[in-house]
Amino acid sequence: MREVVVISGKGGTGKTSLSASFAYLEGSNALVSDCDVDAANMHLLLDANFKNKSDFFSGEIAIIDEDSCTNCGICFEACKFDAITEDDDFHIVDPISCEGCHYCFRVCPHDAITMQTQKAGDIFVSDIKNSTQMVHAKLGFAAENSGKLVAKVKTEAKILALRGDKEFVITDGSPGIGCPVISSLSGASLVVLVTEATVSGLHDLKRVQELVKTFNLEAVCIINKYDLNANVTQDIEDFLDAQNIEVIAKLPYDETFTKALAKAQPIVEYSKDGELSLLVKDSWERIKTIIRNQK
Amino acid sequence: MKITFASGKGGTGKTTISTNLTSYLASMGKSVVLADLDVEEPNSALFIKSKLKKTTVSNKMIPKWNAVDCTLCKKCVEVCNFNAIVAMPKEILVFPELCHSCYACSELCPTDSLPMTPSRIGEIKEFSADGFSLVEGRLDLGQEMAVPLIAQTIKYIDENFNDSIKILDAPPGTSCPVIEASRGSDYVILITESTPFGLNDLTLAVETMKVLKQNFGIIINRYGIGNNGVEEYCKAENIPIISKIQNDKELAKLYANGELIYPKIEHFKNSLDEIITFIGGLK
């Protein structure tokens, strides 16, 4: 089982449309995971049925018992997150600010504080188009720890892939370079960097590639909207060349992507033989060849 | 007045709108500052001609082991809830990237052997542009936690630009970094696009704003593509649509080239006027 992780640095470059297309093309030979848990939407293109749901618990928050609290203020002094405020007769915790560090709980002389495990979200295993499965999640509103949830989604997908004897796990990562992205990248066989021919696309690509490099991962790149700006596309290609990263596809600015999206279909389903679909199919074949040739 | 531009989905136009709006307000003679809080991938500065004025190193506080008085009692290991401290047979190891800076180990250590010391996580850069300032938070590569730097960047503009209109460009998503970028603002403007992805992520962002009890409105970008799901949702939820920005390939080209849009595209400028009128009517 080998894992392909699709990431982008910048949001809105076409990462999810492409990952969903790869999933659609590979069908039952791949298991799919959506690790953009902050704003998960891959399920929209793959007709996920949200079949199996399980709770995801992560992090804790402090709760102060009003009756036991003597308003001594020791917890207030201890908390470095401004999560504790003084009310008339007792202290109170703001659950959004609480970091779950246990410091107040440890120092309260009256045992008035308890730590409560938080439900951070739901994890789903769904049946999807082309007879395979997808692991995805929904983070609770204003919840924390999306990096841990990403790790959980990935692990679940890998277990299912091994059990089902699938050749690939296809992972849609999240934007940025922080905790969720680092978590998405762990264990990747190949990273697919998706960028666009804009100054911000290039800037963000450079940062995320630096990150990929620190993990010693092999990467390829897809340049989306390459015809928006020839100079930027050239700069992107020069950068990738210097980094020894192969450009496996250059896709034109094309509103067919959006039309397919409005129909809740990956591009390779919406316009099977269109120019874009053929380019996407070729790039998926290239990805498989690269992975199969890895030692 | 502090306004945050946020969105669930990435790439919907937060940076385009906040950079252009700031520049446009400045051209009207308003005192305004833009804070780029997308500290993982800050790129407002790419769209604004500016000069770097000042760079401030951003630190988080982490414990540093001092061997002299340590008795290896392991109290620090016991109190750390993030597994950031490990006791070896003859030393204490600290893993900075796991530390949440709660100070418990440091303050509860019986021999004061873990003093808190600054550890670099990124930079806050102040740029001066034509008639306004831009302040950017930039997280160092390999750092996992964006929230402390976002908080410090907001504090920086509060302290240095208190009398200006503050425009905050938030990171994408709906979890902790967005919450940090939104919670202290007077108003949040969520930017979306009229596609199923845009709608899905908008509903997540809306629910987050409701949990925060934050006032918010919506801008629909790339209006005319996709479908009318976002409009129907806003109507059903009674959420104000502040402006609809027409889908326009010429606009995308200007963006691709790192240029400001409003001096060249009239309908975009009209949308900025709608936003300014809306903001002016708040409170």
Description:
The complex is a heterodimer of chains A (295) and B (283). Chain A has 295 residues and is of the alpha/beta class. Chain A has helices at 15-26, 43-46, 74-78, 103-107, 146-163, 179-185, 199-214, 230-242, 256-262, 267-270, 275-293, and strands spanning 2-7, 30-34, 52-64, 84-86, 91-93, 113-128, 132-139, 168-172, 190-196, 219-224, 246-250. In chain A, a hairpin with a 3-residue loop joins strand 6 (113-128) and strand 7. The two termini of chain A are 13 Å apart. Chain B has 283 residues and is α/β, with parallel strands linked by helices. Chain B folds into two domains: 2-59 and 121-280, P-loop containing nucleotide triphosphate hydrolases (Rossmann fold, 3-Layer(aba) Sandwich); 65-114, Alpha-Beta Plaits (2-Layer Sandwich), CATH 3.30.70. Chain B has nine helices and eleven strands. Chain B has a nine-stranded mixed beta sheet, sandwiched between helices. A two-stranded antiparallel sheet of chain B has the order 4-5. In chain B, strand 9 (187-193), helix 6 and strand 10 form a beta-alpha-beta unit. The mean pLDDT of chain B is 96. Chains A and B meet through helix 4, helix 6, helix 7 and helix 9 of A and helix 3, helix 5, helix 6 and helix 8 of B.
Describe the structure concisely.
With 295 residues, chain A is of the alpha/beta class.
User: Which regions of chain B have little confidence, pLDDT < 50, spanning 5+ residues?
Assistant: none
Helix and strand content put the structural class of chain A at: alpha/beta
Distance between the termini of chain A: 13 Å
Major sheet of chain B: size, sense and barrel closure?
Answer: 9 strands, mixed
Strand content of chain B: 25-35%
Helix-strand topology string of chain A: EHEHEHEEHEEHEHEHEHEHHH
